[in-house]
Amino acid sequence: MRIVIVDDEPFARDELKYLLSLQPDAEVVAEASDGLSAIEIIEATRPDLVLLDIQMPGLNGFEVLRTLNLEQMTQFIFITAYDQFAVRAFEVSAIDYLLKPVSEERFAQALERYRKTVAVQNNNSTIEQLKNLLSSLPNQQTYARTLVGRKRERIFLIPVADIFAVEMESQMVYIVTEKERYWSNETLSGIESRLNPEEFMRTHRQSIVRIDAIRELEPLLNERMLLKLKNGHEVTASRNHLSEIRRKLGL
Question: Could you give the CA distance from residue 235 to residue 204 in angstroms, rounded to a whole number?
Fold first, then answer.
């Protein structure tokens, strides 16, 4: 088993490395102390298993999982100190969790569960399992404070306050800021569910816009509208969303 450890506490990482040293088939290929570096390391090393902490500064474990390309990933064992909502969610999933402090016996059970799972699952069923888990997980905060964007080979942590729009083009989701445009692994609906509806609104099935980023509205044919943003970016609003747009803008 090629394993990556992700935890912001050095002591916790050392404890997990010790527990793994007791497993003859386990190899720690890398470790990360925060969510952003975890994404880079996991995608670079393609491990068999990731031990992923939930509570971390910046990006938590759920946000790391949402950001990763699941088509390239395998299994995760989550680690939590006190999040009972997460524990209940994991109890109905084939993916295991560990409650801190981690005992040697419980750790061994989790790894044995992993071994049995990969023995009967193919990669497609693992991906579906991860997607189902994500859909069942409660949000760990009311609204996201940051989103993860990508540009070329680099990964960026983007404050939601800097986002002007989120849009889909050619089956890809893009995050638009004042001067940049990043692509994201998340779905448009997934991002929308984590944005404050008092600050953002859906303007089209393929676009979400920050309300106070709108500078000008221009009527178009077929009951559509062109929204011109303060950074010069333009977004088309469909007629299905015009009533909600007018309500939120007080028109």
Answer: 9
